[in-house]
Amino acid sequence: MSNDGLARFNENAIIPWNINDTQLSPAQFVSNIPWLDWTTTGKEGDVKYKVSSVEKFAIWYSEQAESLIKNENGYIWNGSYWKQVKPSEVINNLNVSIISITDRLSVSQTKKRELQRDVKEYLVGLGRTFDDSIKTKYVAFKNATLTLETGMLDKPDKNQNIIGGFDFEVSDDDRLPETWIKYVKYMFGNNDRIFWAWLGYGFYNDMRWWQGALFLLDPVGGTGKTYLVSKIAKALFGEERVGAFKLKNLQAGNARFETARFIGKAIMVDDDATKVRFKEDDVFKAVTGGGLSPVERKGIDGTDYMITAKIIANVNEMPIFNSGGAITRRLHIIKTIAPMADKAEIDKRNRMFPEDELQEEIPLLIPYAVEMFQRAMAEDWKIEDDISEDMVATDPFDLWHKTLESGEFKAHDLYNSYTDFFESLNIGEDAKPMTLTAWGRKMSNWHKKIKHRSGVMYQL
């Protein structure tokens, strides 16, 4: 009886008790309960209650419990937004509520089972017309709904069908979080506004601005950027909406498990993505581009999921990506300018950015971050001293591909040519050419594949 659904049901509903528990007459007692009737039995005229309409009970229950079932999901209105839960939670709430009500009224077991069956079907029926799509124009908080385009805060409205939200309040105070602004400026210089805009971007359930990831490059190391990112992200989004992942796992066999970490998150942080080498970047592109990504969670069948969480990766040295416009456009790199955070430096920062002021300004962070994102979009902000072009390695496949001549060639001969070329580059002891399967997929994107009796050939 402690979860959201039952708590709100018991708070909202007039749960009927036996007549001995009320000063009302039986007629008065049932007058406001459309599904309840009464009669008298025996010589002493004992009051007996009965459920007069299962349909009216179902309507009454759905209005009080504010829950429904759609497809594989259950939804419960918690007063701020529709919370997605397992269907079993909605059904359990229903069963417990019906048992509680019918026991109080001494209703028969047969009627109790009938109610449990038919009201469940009613809740499923409600779900058929329920719009559970992602609402990109709104963000729900505990005390208000933020309209992203206007910055207006309105009372939560369950008819907007906003799925999910943040379980803390947002402030309508128009002051600026001055101490936080100074702190971020101290860490990132003139690119502080890009950092703020990226955080504001995290409140949007789409990839309308930049695709890709924000890399916080700290060549010196130990400047305290990881501490700041964790502190400000949790202050903005709450701990439940900030996740951790490893950039290196967004490739090969680990990808479908790593992407599962992104579900339900606004910001994903890799606290050290230094020296990651990307050989297969298709999952990275999908995750950072708003496309469907393979997701597999323990005990749940694998599926494809559209990820909209924004990535922040802390690095002392940039990961290695192969060349290509699609990758270069996804690398957004800002450098830290703060000195290394030794004891003297930490003491200095504590004086410059007092913890009590930071805590006091937390409610001011959300409006500021969202405003900075909107300005970035409207004014087409750019990163100062952008070094993304210099961070992309040349793909050995692309170099080899440029050496090919026109004609029809056996796949086996072409692959051997590719591996020989790869070895000639002397990239490093740990570097290995693509597998034949991966190479074949890439070739098929470029050239016509022809199957002969003698084997597979490509027309170049």
UniProtKB/TrEMBL annotation:
A GO molecular-function descriptor: ATP binding
Any single Pfam family the record assigns to this protein: DUF5906
Keywords: ATP-binding, Nucleotide-binding
InterPro entries referenced in this protein's UniProt entry, alphabetically: Helicase_SF3_DNA-vir, NrS-1_pol-like_helicase, P-loop_NTPase
Keyword Nucleotide-binding found: yes
Domain of life of the organism encoding this protein: Bacteria
Domain SF3 helicase, chain residue ranges per copy: 190-353
Annotated protein name in UniProt: SF3 helicase domain-containing protein
